[in-house]
Design a protein that fits this description.
Chain lengths: 377, 492
């Protein structure tokens, strides 16, 4: 390899490790707790212990052309056993908060890839760094006591990603009474009207009930990427940060609250194209203050929350100081920057970057413009 | 070298002055298991067991409309479902899950179905904890609770457990039967399975028998805290259990025994049952939840808050059920002013919109008990006695001045024909009388169901009542969270 002059540095890496993690635990989580008057608030779990993550990693770092180009790639597999999860108990045991349990094992695996290019040789200096990561999440097993763990709109079950959205699958809108009658043959259905959401009858018994629920989305991001550009020329400097996520779903509960709630709220203009007669829409149910199917947890609220966002851009200019100024100031820099300048997404909620997978309209990140002067004495 | 010795000395001190104790610190600022109950917490375990019977807002949860836990849902599960009550005076889309009881379109995910289940089982969980304390005589003696008090308190919580289970079996049929507090969360999976209705009734009867033995005589079990379960309340509940199981002889013997106590009679004025000013100073109410304003924690009646938001209205069919000039209609609802006086506890709208109102929630009163007796008499062929009771209820109603202070005209609510020997006719009179006498008191839907006339009556009102609706669905969340060991009712 010594005579391969374009390789500056090449390193192959492999690692394995085991890590205890108790970030899911707070003080006294193993104990039952009571309020000051002696009413039970939460059941304890005396066997509670930290979760263990085993991570295996293989990859390489490569620098080329005198470090102008750097590449780093990894494949990782991270298995967490004794996974810590809050477990909601059936209400028959009383009105209690979830108990934290070691619920099972989950695996995350994927690739990480980063590439950088920099050019510092001339007056116009610039560098570009980009990264991309993929993750696949899968629940390997759950405690036999809890074959599945339900959340408000989700279900966790072995063989599926953690906290997968679980509910009814919308197949369209009922266009006519005949369509309803032909479809719902298993029971009378006077409350269902043309314009209501049509759900998939998974077991084909002509009744839409809870056994017709299925997996309708995955809230775990599959691909995330970012890019960082920086450049300078004479006194000017520029830095740009992009970030994006591809392959993630969110439960847009805000849409339910605003557009489909049975309470008499104003709707958004998204419902202007609502169903208003046979053939008018197969995606937006009729506009009504009674239940048009929207009270069910269903795929109508599960949206692709992939996005690509210009997270930050900043342009600066450093003054070329002379004479007396130079004796007073070490450095004077003017800059203008903008955050969240633009976002490309199909998500109709307020912010695709919102932290919660169950999005009830968390206050979105704002677009911000900053102008500043840095003075160093 | 000297410095090395110094360092070694420090290391020796550090390693020997270990911190074993610090690894097992007693929790600070919270109360955990293993901390023995106090006098106060034992007494409060009883008080808190009552709370799930209240209409106080947010006893569990915090504005959990979607969980149906904002307040106890009897008015929805009974009065709206029976077709007597409408959700609101002006129909709208607010809390559409309540409308699903009027339309019989609810599913196992309906908030009300969830909420009532949660309330009853939260009550049972508190009762079971309380029983575990109060059956430990050594513990209570050590805390300075005397034996008479212990027995009375224990009897009260046995009654409450029976009360909650009675509600559950009538709403849901077979239900999980929990009688001891769980040790830890994993126990939840062994108890999360349905027990037959018959077996739950065995438990209910056993609990009531215990309560009857343990609670002392006297109209009130506690001279100062008159809201506590009394012996009369226990007997009434025993009679009601017998009634719902059509054990007519037991109904008659129990009610006769209650009459012999001489504690209860019909109030001369119908509204005295509900008037805030007459609470625990009248003759008829046997068991109620004592709502109080301005207490900490709150014990006020939150149903009045809902009334302020336009909830709780009569259906046209309900209003039409009252005979001409029946004063009870005016005390129940004031259509012009959109008031529900018997729930407000006042003959004005001062409590309408009050989320902390003092009006009690009436669960059992003497007129109800007398009509049970009339029903048992009719079923056992004692027609004149049955009619006499119905007529006594009607007489009290027509001799009550109206809500405007006027005397009902002659001929109002005439006596039923005492010579009738037509059982079906007398039953029809009884059905009618219970509806108007106990309107909006959350009895009607259970009545319709146990009489077997729910389907005929409600489909007659144009409602989509199906045979499956004789039971409510088990909340889907319970089936999910139990991993399917709790099963669904047929048809849902």
């Amino acid at each position: 390899m010594q005579d391969v002059s374009w390789v500056t540095d090449l390193k192959l890496r492999g690692s394995t490790g085991k890590l205890g993690n108790q970030s899911g635990l707070n003080n006294y989580n193993s104990l039952a707790i009571y309020n000051s008057q002696g009413t039970l608030l939460r059941y304890g779990n005396p066997d509670l212990k930290w979760e263990t993550t085993t991570q295996n990693n293989i990859g390489f770092d490569l620098s080329m052309f005198k470090n102008k180009i750097t590449i780093s790639a990894d494949y990782f597999k991270k298995t967490t056993s004794d996974l810590l999860l809050p477990l909601g108990l059936p209400s028959v045991v009383g009105d209690v908060k979830p108990t934290i349990v070691n619920a099972g094992a989950v695996t995350n695996k994927g690739f990480e890839f980063a590439i950088g290019y920099r050019n510092n040789d001339r007056k116009f200096k610039y560098s570009i760094n980009a990264n991309l990561a993929t993750v696949t999440n899968n629940v390997d097993k759950l405690d036999p006591n809890l074959p599945n763990i339900y959340g408000q709109v989700s279900k966790t079950e072995a063989g599926h990603p953690l906290n997968s959205f679980y509910g009814f699958k919308m197949t369209g809108i009922y266009q006519t009474q005949k369509e309803i009658d032909d479809y719902l043959t298993g029971a009378s259905h006077p409350d269902i009207k043309p314009g209501d959401i049509k759900f998939q009858d998974i077991n084909g018994d002509g009744i839409i009930n809870d056994v017709d629920r299925t997996y309708i989305g995955n809230p775990n991001p599959r691909v995330s990427c970012g890019a960082n550009l920086s450049a300078s020329y004479l006194g000017f400097d520029l830095s740009v940060l992009f970030q994006g996520v591809k392959g993630v779903e969110k439960y847009n509960d805000l849409k339910k609250i605003i557009d489909y709630d049975t309470r008499p709220f104003n709707h958004t203009t998204a419902t202007l194209d609502a169903w208003h007669g046979a053939g008018t829409s197969n995606t937006i149910p009729r506009s009504t203050f009674t239940d048009n199917g929207s009270s069910k947890v269903s795929s109508i609220f599960v949206e692709d929350a992939s996005y690509f966002r210009l997270k930050n851009i900043e342009i600066g200019y450093t003054l070329n100081l002379e004479g007396k100024m130079k004796s007073v100031f070490q450095n004077v820099r003017l800059f203008v920057s903008a955050q969240n300048l633009f976002t490309v997404t199909n998500y109709t909620g307020l912010d695709p970057e919102a932290y919660n997978m169950f999005d009830q309209g968390t206050y979105p990140q704002s677009k911000a413009f900053l102008f500043g002067i840095n003075v160093k004495l | 070298m000297k410095s090395i010795y110094k360092i070694l000395a420090v290391l020796v001190i550090i390693s020997t002055a270990g911190c074993k104790k610090e690894l097992h610190k007693t929790p600070i600022g919270i109360i955990t298991e293993g901390i023995p109950p106090t006098h106060e917490s034992v007494l409060y375990s009883v008080t808190s067991s009552y709370q799930l019977l209240s209409s106080t807002l947010n006893i569990i949860g915090n504005w959990g409309w979607d969980d149906g836990t904002v307040l106890r849902n009897d008015f929805i599960m009974q009065d709206i479902a029976s077709g007597d009550m409408m959700k609101k005076w002006n129909p709208d889309g607010d809390q559409a899950w309540m409308d699903q009881f009027a339309e019989f379109s609810f599913t196992s995910s309906n908030s009300g179905v969830k909420g009532q289940w949660s309330y009853d089982y939260a009550g049972i969980a508190r009762v079971n904890l309380s029983i575990s304390y109060l059956t430990d005589a050594t513990l209570t003696a050590g805390l300075g609770i005397d034996e008479a008090t212990r027995k009375s308190l224990l009897g009260q919580v046995y009654f409450l457990r029976a009360f909650y289970y009675f509600d559950l079996v009538n709403l849901y049929g077979d239900v999980p039967l929990l009688t001891v507090p769980l040790k830890n969360f994993a126990d939840a999976y062994s108890v999360a399975k349905r027990e037959t209705k018959a077996n739950v009734y065995v438990q209910i009867s056993a609990d009531l028998a215990q309560a009857n033995t343990l609670i002392g005589g006297g109209k009130y079990s506690d001279a100062t805290e008159k809201w506590r379960v009394s012996k009369g309340a226990v007997m009434a509940m025993q009679a009601k259990v017998a009634l719902y199981n059509q054990q007519w002889a037991d109904v008659l013997s129990t009610v006769t025994a209650m009459e012999a106590l001489n504690y209860y009679s019909l109030n001369s004025n119908y509204f005295d049952n509900f008037s805030v000013g007459k609470e625990f100073a009248e003759n008829e109410v046997i068991f109620s939840y004592d709502h109080q304003s301005l207490t900490t924690p709150r014990t006020g009646n939150g149903l009045c808050a809902l009334a302020g938001w336009g909830f709780i209205a009569p259906s046209a069919d309900f209003i039409g059920a009252f005979e001409p000039n029946d004063p009870r209609l005016g005390y129940t609802v004031d259509v012009a002013g959109q008031n529900v006086y018997k729930l407000f506890g006042e003959l004005n709208s001062s409590n309408k919109g009050n989320d902390d109102a003092p009006s009690n929630k009436i669960y059992i009163r003497w007129a109800d008990v007398m009509l049970w007796k009339a029903e048992a008499l009719n079923e056992t062929g004692n027609y004149p006695a049955a009619i006499a009771i119905i007529n006594s209820i009607r007489a009290r109603a027509r001799t009550t001045v109206t809500v405007n202070g006027t005397v009902p005209p002659a001929g109002t609510l005439p006596d039923r024909d005492v010579t009738s020997v037509n059982k079906d006719q007398i039953k029809a009179w009884l059905v009618q009388e219970r509806r108007v006498e106990l309107g909006f008191e959350s009895q009607r839907f259970n009545d319709l169901k146990r009489w077997g006339i729910a389907k005929a009556f409600l489909t007659g009102l144009g409602k989509n009542f199906q045979d499956k609706n004789y039971l409510y669905p088990i909340p889907q969340g319970e089936i999910d969270k139990s991993g399917g060991t709790i099963t669904q009712n047929t048809g849902y």
